[in-house]
Recover the amino acids of this structure.
């Protein structure tokens, strides 16, 4: 009789939905993940917006420069008949934009990645928390699309013309394989330069300028080969509006493979202690959101507490 009464009480509790069942392991993990995601978003949501805004600005600059230099409706195409000179001017515009972003207050706060391949490389290096990395990547993709959307609203049909086509990235006349290896080379070199200079306090202030120079040279020499992307979110932003997804896989795989390879080589040579921070500019006046040991950087949570 005692067992029957106990069974009745259990059944009654189950029927009311208030029996204190122990959560399963999957439910516990899901709750922990959602809590970690919410905490990361509440603490760093401004940085995520900054990352999206940085790529949006970069895309707006790319779209405007493409229209002004390559649309027949604008005088540059007629005044500067040399395609190489126009690519050089395009490269200078894009490189200067990158330098300004990296040295801006936004860039000094968020780290100025504005590229999922860079963020994921720093995630591999253990310099950025998992949920920060995830949100960085999501907002970078959103920012890329938003930047092209703003450009399309302002520039109208000029951005959709065949000679501009939303600054879309597609393989050039040398084919897909050449485009893949061009993107791979550019990405690995860029990440190698960033890691080498940004992790040396005496040289770190020059990292942004070197990134700008590399971008300028990449546009000049490699735009005819791959269209110059080295950034999956940049390619996506243009492809969404141009509806051109030709060999899109290579603009996702080559930059990630190139930057991850450079990060892995650097890590094998210099070890974890050789990677100080994930910022491209080391300005100590701004709090560092990363798992960082850069001299004089300040944090809301000490790096030891993040482990």
């Amino acid at each position: 009789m005692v067992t029957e009464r106990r069974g009745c009480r259990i059944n009654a509790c189950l029927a009311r939905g208030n029996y204190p069942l122990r959560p399963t392991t999957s439910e516990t993990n899901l709750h922990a993940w959602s809590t970690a995601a919410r905490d990361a978003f509440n603490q760093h949501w401004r940085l995520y917006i900054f990352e999206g805004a940085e790529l949006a600005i970069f895309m707006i600059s790319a779209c405007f420069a493409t229209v002004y230099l390559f649309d027949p409706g604008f005088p540059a195409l007629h005044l500067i008949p040399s395609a190489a000179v126009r690519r050089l001017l395009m490269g200078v515009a894009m490189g200067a934009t990158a330098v300004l972003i990296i040295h801006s207050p936004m860039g000094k706060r968020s780290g100025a990645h504005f590229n999922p391949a860079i963020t994921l490389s720093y995630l591999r290096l253990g310099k950025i928390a998992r949920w920060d990395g995830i949100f960085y990547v999501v907002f970078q993709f959103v920012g890329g699309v938003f930047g092209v959307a703003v450009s399309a609203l302002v520039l109208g049909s000029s951005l959709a013309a065949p000679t501009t086509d939303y600054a879309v990235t597609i393989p050039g006349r040398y084919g897909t394989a050449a485009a893949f290896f061009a993107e791979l080379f550019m990405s690995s070199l860029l990440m190698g330069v960033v890691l080498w200079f940004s992790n040396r306090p005496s040289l770190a202030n020059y990292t942004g300028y070197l990134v700008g120079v590399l971008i300028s040279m990449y546009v000049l020499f490699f735009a005819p080969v791959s269209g110059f992307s080295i950034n999956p979110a940049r390619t996506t932003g243009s492809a969404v509006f141009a509806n051109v997804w030709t060999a899109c896989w290579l603009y996702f795989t080559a930059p990630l493979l190139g930057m991850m390879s450079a990060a892995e080589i650097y890590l094998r040579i210099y070890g974890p202690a050789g990677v100080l921070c994930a910022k491209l500019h080391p300005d100590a006046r701004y709090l560092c959101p990363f798992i960082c040991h850069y001299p004089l950087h300040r944090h809301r949570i000490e790096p030891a507490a993040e482990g």
Q: What stands out?
A: Residues 1-7, 13-20, 302-307 have pLDDT under 50 and may be disordered. The chain is about 70% helix and 0% strand.
